[in-house]
Structures are given as structure tokens and as C-alpha cells.
């Protein structure tokens, strides 16, 4: 993936409009010398934007659609797509957690400690499993069934949505807490949001609807 300079963009535009066109003519159009332009032309040729034919000149080769998609994909940031995290306190019961799951219409809950920092994660199946026993759910603290720190897979807001999707797949989980490390100890995390498989599906649909440029 390369970022084009302003001059390289200009060259592309000229070739798109007037190609096939010789290096000499491109230089003339930009009021530059052929020598000044040479590095730009070789970058554009090597990266597949332009094709050069001897004695004919430069053609616009276009980019492969897959490159364009991949480039756009890697630019999406967690911060712009994250949803609100649904949390319950560490002191809540499994019963409370199940009620919250239904009320908030989510599949995963994040558990926070008294200071409000991330302490655990509870999934649908964690709650179903707890319900299979004969124990009273009103008496069972959610903290005994949760997946706890430091085993929680997290993501930072400045990371890419692609990195988040990769973690969801690699760790076979449905939801990631978006966190910021607390100054100082570096082991406490403030909860900023969540990225779930739904978040990824929404971004995917959005990408498919946007016209490509
Ligand atoms: P489900 O269990 O409903 O299929 P998940 O696949 O998300 O939902 O959860 C699988 C297991 O992984 C559960 O035990 C859950 O506590 C745990 N888990 C969920 N999210 C995370 C996470 N971000 N980091 C670590 N463990 C997680």
C-alpha cells in the first residue's frame, strides 16, 4: 500500500485523461523536466498504476479492485465504529446479568470492579452453563463465572477495525472490549466501548454500499 503524492496524483490524472502519453509530454503538461518526473513515473509503474510501452507512452492500468478494498478496509478505526459497552458490577448476581442481557439485547456483558475498571467478560453461553446447575442464580455472583483479567482480549480505539475482526476470529469470541490503559499501573483498563461481530458486519455493509473512488 502506498500513499500517492500530489504530483503523482496529477500524473495519474493526466494519463487517465490523455493516455497513451509519453513521459516527455507529461513533463511538459506539468512544467517540469523529464528527469524530475522519472522517479514518480517509476513508482507509479512499479506499483501497478501505470503501464509503460516503449515508443507509445504511459497507459493508465488502474488498480486492482481488491487492492482498493483492502486499502479502505485498513483505514477504518475501532474508535469510529465502537458501540457502547454494556456493563454490570462485579457484585451483581448471575440472575442480574441474565436480566441485563435481555434488557440490553446483547450477547456479551463486561464486568467492572468498584473503581469502574474492566474486571471480566460474561458471554451468553457462560450464563447458560451457570443456569444448568441447580444453584440459585440469585445467590451466585457473576464474578465466579466470568472470564477474568488478565485473560481478556482487548483492543485500543486507535487500532484498526480489521485488527479487531482478526482478534474475534483468532480467539473465537463474539465481543471485544475497547479500552484505554490507566496511567500508572498499566494493568487497569478503562472501558470505552465494544466491538462485536455485529460491528464488523455493519462496517462490511457500509463498505459495500459506498461508491468506490
Ligand atoms: P459464547 O460463549 O456465547 O459462544 P463467546 O464465543 O464470545 O460467546 O465466548 C466464548 C468464551 O470466551 C466465554 O467463556 C467468554 O467468557 C469468553 N470471552 C468472551 N469475550 C472474551 C474476550 N474479549 N476476551 C477473553 N475471553 C472472552
Helix and strand content put the structural class at alpha+beta
Beta content comes to 15-25%
Number of domains: 2
Query: Given this structure, which CATH class of the largest domain is correct?
Result: Alpha Beta
Question: Major sheet, described briefly?
Answer: 4 strands, mixed
User: Can you write the helix and strand succession as a string?
Assistant: HHHEEHHEHEEHEHEEH
The number of E-state strands comes to 8
Mean pLDDT: 91
Radius of gyration based on Cα positions:
26 Å
Give the bound compounds.
Answer: adenosine-5'-diphosphate
CATH-defined topology of the largest domain: CBS-domain
Number of helices: 9
Percent of residues in helices: 40-55%
Shape verdict: elongated
Strand order of the biggest β-sheet: 3-4-5-6
Low-pLDDT segments, ≥5 res:
none
**CATH homolog superfamily of the largest domain:** CBS-domain
CATH architecture of the largest domain: Roll
First-last Cα distance: 16 Å
How does this model look, in words?
This protein has 213 residues and is of the alpha+beta class. The protein folds into two domains: 6-63, Winged helix-like DNA-binding domain superfamily/Winged helix DNA-binding domain (Arc Repressor Mutant, subunit A, Orthogonal Bundle), CATH 1.10.10; 78-205, CBS-domain (Roll). Helices cover 42% and strands 18% of the residues. Strands 3-4-5-6 form a four-stranded mixed sheet. Strands 1-2 form a two-stranded antiparallel sheet. Strand 7 and strand 8 form a beta hairpin. The longest helix has 13 residues, at 6-18. It is elongated, with a radius of gyration of 26 Å. Adenosine-5'-diphosphate is lined by residues 108, 121-126, 147, 151-153, 172-176.
Amino acid at each position: 500500500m502506498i500513499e500517492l503524492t500530489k504530483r503523482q496524483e496529477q500524473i495519474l490524472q493526466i494519463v487517465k485523461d490523455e493516455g497513451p502519453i509519453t513521459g516527455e509530454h507529461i513533463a511538459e503538461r506539468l512544467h517540469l523536466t523529464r528527469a524530475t518526473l522519472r522517479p514518480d513515473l517509476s513508482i507509479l509503474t512499479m506499483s501497478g498504476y501505470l503501464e509503460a510501452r516503449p515508443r507509445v507512452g504511459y497507459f493508465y492500468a488502474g488498480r486492482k479492485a481488491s487492492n482498493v478494498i483492502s486499502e479502505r478496509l485498513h483505514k477504518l478505526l475501532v474508535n469510529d465504529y465502537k458501540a457502547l459497552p454494556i456493563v454490570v458490577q462485579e457484585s451483581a448476581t448471575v440472575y442480574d446479568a441474565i436480566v441485563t442481557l435481555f434488557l440490553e439485547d446483547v450477547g456479551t456483558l463486561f464486568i467492572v470492579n468498584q473503581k469502574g475498571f474492566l474486571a471480566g467478560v460474561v458471554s451468553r453461553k457462560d450464563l447458560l452453563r451457570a443456569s444448568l446447575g441447580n444453584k440459585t442464580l440469585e445467590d451466585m455472583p457473576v464474578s465466579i463465572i466470568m472470564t477474568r483479567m488478565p485473560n481478556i482480549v482487548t483492543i485500543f480505539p486507535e487500532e484498526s477495525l480489521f485488527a479487531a475482526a482478526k482478534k474475534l476470529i483468532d480467539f473465537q469470541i463474539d465481543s471485544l472490549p475497547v479500552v484505554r490503559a490507566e496511567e500508572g499501573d498499566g494493568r487497569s483498563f478503562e472501558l470505552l466501548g465494544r466491538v462485536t461481530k455485529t460491528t464488523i458486519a455493519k462496517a462490511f455493509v457500509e463498505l459495500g454500499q459506498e461508491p468506490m473512488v
